[in-house]
């Protein structure tokens, strides 16, 4: 290799061999790429979706896709179709079993046979359209029976997924061979999240990384791996669950569990400078429950002093259950506030219905603007 050693001060470029020049060029390119990556990571917004099982985290993420124009691919829609078939068959099995155990009589004794048949069947045998649609007349007859309807009304006494009523009300449509799930059907499809699911959606030119985790007890140990560089926590609570117990132990009140999880998160040291936004979700189901008079919150929360059939009283009480656990503590200077100043974390809240696209559009619009503004402020401080 011939090195050009012409070290004349005005011709410094001759100091390097062509290979060295090539290498320097490559390394500069790499530096520029790293810098671009760093800039994009600095700009990136990371939103952590947290909350107990069935609070609506994955439904919220589905809404983010819908609202920002990301289509569900045909194979994903097909997968949801199978999930919905399973949701329906499993749901009817639970209802028939509950009717038996609660000792509720059949309206039509002739449905006893269909009930037995559904109880003995394996839901995995009905994930294709043909076998599912063949089963539908029996499912419909069962759903029409007032014995099953009474068991459905008493669903807070056992474990029934919240979307079963929606799918059974829509059975005439779902039972058609040519049916494929609409966005609304997909929003109601229930599959518990296992592990961590990430989705990056560009919003107003800024990459928003949504991190969705499983909320059931066995899944929560996986949360800690996501705690790095979080911009905001979106904490979801199923506000309608004040009269229900956990699927995991069938003992603990679901709202109590949710509040304990919230306490751990909102007061966690790792989130000293992270804003938390509380979504009191399932407003539609809460209103239905409170207005129906079928359930009285005082039986589960004796400290409730408002009017139990007034939805805003119940909502205000549930909000106070959560806001009261936020502890005061010292903060570092980031995100406003003076270094070492003692104050509570800012807690924003919204009453949401995650299956309602218009509602989530409005709520997320406000959340997005706050996050983008704070993100910009934080970037300018760096
Ligand atoms: N009616 C109604 N149903 C909702 C609402 N939010 C979620 N759901 C339904 O509730 C069920 C549970 O919602 P998911 O989004 O799967 O809950 P999750 O928090 O992701 O649950 P895990 O993955 O187990 O942690 C689904 O069937 C949703 O369609 C709501 O606001 N109203
Ligand atoms: Mg989920």
CATH fold assignment of the largest domain: Rossmann fold
According to CATH, the homologous superfamily of the largest domain is: P-loop containing nucleotide triphosphate hydrolases
What is the general shape? globular
Low-confidence stretches: 1-11, 333-337
| Biggest pleated sheet | 6 strands, mixed
Q: Give the total of domains.
A: 2
Strand order of the largest sheet: 2-3-1-4-5-8
Structural class: alpha/beta
Bound molecules: guanosine-5'-triphosphate, magnesium ion
In whole angstroms, the N-to-C terminal distance is 46 Å
Q: Report the mean per-residue pLDDT as an integer.
A: 91
Give me the oligomer status: single chain
């Amino acid at each position: 290799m011939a090195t050009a050693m012409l070290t004349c001060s005005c011709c410094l470029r001759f100091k390097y061999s062509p290979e060295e020049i090539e290498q320097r060029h490559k390394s500069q390119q790499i530096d520029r790429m790293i810098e671009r990556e760093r800039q994009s990571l600095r700009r990136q917004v990371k939103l952590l979706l947290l909350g107990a099982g069935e609070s609506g985290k994955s439904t919220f993420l589905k809404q983010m896709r819908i609202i920002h124009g990301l289509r569900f691919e045909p194979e994903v829609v097909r997968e949801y179709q199978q999930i919905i078939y399973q949701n329906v068959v499993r749901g009817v099995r639970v209802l028939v079993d509950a009717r038996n155990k609660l000792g509720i009589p059949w309206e039509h004794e002739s449905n006893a046979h269909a009930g037995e048949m559904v109880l003995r069947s394996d839901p995995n045998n009905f994930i294709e359209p043909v076998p599912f649609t063949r089963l539908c007349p029996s499912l419909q007859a069962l759903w029409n029976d007032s014995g099953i309807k009474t068991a459905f009304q008493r669903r807070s006494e056992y474990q029934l997924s919240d979307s079963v009523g929606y799918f059974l009300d829509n059975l005439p449509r779902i039972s058609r061979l040519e049916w494929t799930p609409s966005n609304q059907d997909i929003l109601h499809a229930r599959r518990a999240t296992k592990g961590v699911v990430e989705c990056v959606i560009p919003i107003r030119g800024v990459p928003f990384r949504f991190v969705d985790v499983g909320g059931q007890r066995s899944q929560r140990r996986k949360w800690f791996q996501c705690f790095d560089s979080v911009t905001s926590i979106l904490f979801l609570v199923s506000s309608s669950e004040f009269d229900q117990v956990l699927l995991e132990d069938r003992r603990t009140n679901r709202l109590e569990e949710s509040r304990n999880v919230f306490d751990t998160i909102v007061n966690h040291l790792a989130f000293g400078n992270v804003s938390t936004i509380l979504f009191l979700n399932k407003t539609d189901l809460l209103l239905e429950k409170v207005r129906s008079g079928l359930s009285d919150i005082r039986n589960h929360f004796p400290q409730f002093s408002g009017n139990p059939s007034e939805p805003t009283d119940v909502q205000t009480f549930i909000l106070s259950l959560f806001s009261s656990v936020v502890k005061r503590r010292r903060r570092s200077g980031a995100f406003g506030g003076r270094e070492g100043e003692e104050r509570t974390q800012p807690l924003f809240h919204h009453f949401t219905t995650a299956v309602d696209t218009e509602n989530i559009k409005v709520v997320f619009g406000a959340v997005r603007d706050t996050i983008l503004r704070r993100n910009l402020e934080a970037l300018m401080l760096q």
